[in-house]
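Re: that chain you flagged

S.,

Sorry for the slow reply, it's been a week of failed gels. I finally had a moment to sit down with the sequence you sent. For the record, here it is as I used it:
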Amino acid sequence: MSRNAQYDRHITIFSPEGKLYQIEYSFKAIRLPGDTTIGVRGRDTVCLITTKKVPDKLVDPSSVTRMYRITPQIGCCVTGRLPDARALIYKSRQIAAEFQFDNGYQIPVRHLANEVANYNQLFTQHAYKRVPGVSLLYCAVDDEVGPRLYMVDPAGSCYGYHAVSTGTKEQEGMSTLEKMMKEKREEQDEEEKKKSDGDDKDKKGGKTKKVNKLDLNEKETVEFAIEALQKVLGVDFKSNQVEVAVCTENNAKFRSLTMKEIDEYLTNISEKD
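Prediction finished late last night. Pasting the structure tokens below so you have them in one place:
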């Protein structure tokens, strides 16, 4: 450890093992507040869900949020240090506003996520600013390609996802999502197979097209996300303990669900079980 102590203090210097220790510590900072976030992309909907923790009984719960609107159509859920998150939310809005001013139309969510990722990555090469201890999930319904979901991390990586988890229980979340998506896809494959068998009784050698993504509507997508978070946390939470936000093709505006709407989804899930 003494050999690597000098590399531990510098953000721009690689250790002999090829690591940037400050970057690794920033990922630990994301898990420190104890929140877990999940994003799920369906056929016509993107859903974001995160745990909600009020730090003190005297704090107004309505002032505590991790869901932010960048543009009317683009939403963002932050996980990690909230002060860092607010700075990046401000930067995201600035990028989006400048893009619309220069081009006359709203910024695509993929371009916004890449621009913020570039901004994060720049400071892994300069010693005058530390990287942010926060990851961001961007979601929107694109006019051309439909629902989109992207995650930007402190190192400047940016990827699109069908479903993703970040925060304290990131690994458990990714494993749970992979398992649930596999089960859903198998169900969808079975339904497609039965449907094709019914439609093509007289045809021979017909092949069923494999489903590569979640074919879920708005209700199914939200329930899928809530069920996944319940399995990851191992508890049945109440509506005031989570935040849920959606974008749909029918209503492209990013909006957070009310506690009444979340209660209805929780009731449907408990009845289904």
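What I noticed first: The beta strands are 36-41, 45-51, 67-69, 75-80, 134-142, 146-152, 158-160, 163-167, 242-248, 255-256.

Talk soon,
D.
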